[in-house]
Design a protein that fits this description.
It is a single chain. This protein is α+β, with helices and mostly antiparallel strands. The protein has seven helices and six strands, in the order ααααβαββαβββα.
């Protein structure tokens, strides 16, 4: 199995509600379509942390880079000019952020990121690890430094 398929399968198995898993694992095109239109409703909210306070791509990237020492991730998205595959973690996040409706699998079945379509995109940290979830909550609670004028 190629890395994109392995990451996609682990993403579906770990982060989506049980009654959608088998169908989306067996139909990759339907999974890509769901990224844009249905995925927020199908996320398993035991593994999804709504990143309401994260409003910029830079803030999302900063959070994810602080949570992991991974240098690469897999971009999963439906846009024809952005090919799903393995990329440097910052590039994969930027690809998901470009149009929204995209996901990034960082550690298969353990850590991922999802952003809904633009405008007014919603961002989600996806993790099966209570330790990563707690660490993310700590990082999100930190005050954001204001740049000097």
């Amino acid at each position: 199995m190629n890395p994109v398929d392995a990451h996609r399968d682990a993403f579906v198995q770990a982060f989506l509600v049980r009654d959608r898993r088998e169908r989306l694992r067996s139909k990759p095109a339907e999974f890509l379509h769901a990224l844009c239109h249905r995925l927020p409703d199908w996320l398993d909210h035991r593994t999804a942390l709504d990143l309401t306070g994260v409003r910029t791509p830079e803030a999302a990237t900063r959070l994810l880079v602080e949570l992991t020492n991974a240098s690469e991730a897999v971009y999963l998205g439906p846009w024809s000019d952005l090919k799903p595959g393995e990329y440097q973690i910052k590039a994969a996040i930027a690809m998901a952020e470009t149009y929204g409706g995209g996901a990034v699998s960082i550690t298969p079945g353990q850590l991922g990121y999802y952003i809904t379509e633009q405008p007014n995109a919603r961002r989600f940290l996806l993790t099966t690890s209570h330790q990563l979830r707690d660490r993310a909550a700590e990082l999100l609670a930190r005050p954001t430094p204001t740049p000097p004028r």
